Amino acid sequence: xxxxxxxxxxxDFDGTLADTSQDxxxxxxxxxKKKSQVSANITEAKNFISKGxxxxxxxxxxxxxxxxxxxxxxxxxxxYENNFFVKTHLFHGVTDIIELLVSKNYKWGIVTNxxxxxxxxxxxxxxxxxxxxxxxxxxxxSVKKPNPEPLxxxxxxxSCSPSACVYIGDDMRDIEAAKAANMFSIAAxxxxxxxxxxxxxxxxDLIINSPLDLKKLIL
Length: 219
Description:
Blueprint: E1 8-11, E2 18-19, H1 21-34, H2 42-45, H3 52-60, H4 66-81, E3 89-90, H5 94-103, E4 107-111, H6 116-126, E5 134-136, H7 149-157, E6 165-169, H8 172-180, E7 184-188, E8 206-208
Parallel strand pairs: 1-4, 1-6, 4-5, 6-7, 7-8
Antiparallel strand pairs: 2-3
């Protein structure tokens, strides 16, 4: 359990705060159809969302040459940019947690590897009653998670000591970044995780099965 008093909760975006899987995989299938490839199954494909557009391309077309792969990634991102908010929604319980955080005077924010030109419009569409106190996107800095700098940058933005922050994510890189930033790390087992049996190996301070499990940490 948390040793220090916490003042803020920071969240990964895809697979932790928002379920973006249907839109992201649907856009992948639009690209695959265009390239005369077999459509991807969402149950399998969503496990690669945490690795971004490149991860989805590598999953569906694993033998591309580097140059062709880069072209496909750009094409995918263009498709997604035009179809990013069709079925995307917050995971059940997220709204309740944010409202509880705000009512208890905690700060909350988002730290994601998703580029700003994609994540910021989605955040706007989600129309949070209480908007995040900070958003650090994948292109905010020159480095991404698992580098701890995006998390440390977020803590500075909200004037909160890293040791008083919690970071929640659904990928091992999230946990690595949180630990390196001296934040309390939480693994979201409900996220986009290929093999949930490996979660304990990530070494997080806590594992949750639902966003609502965070209630016990908000005092």
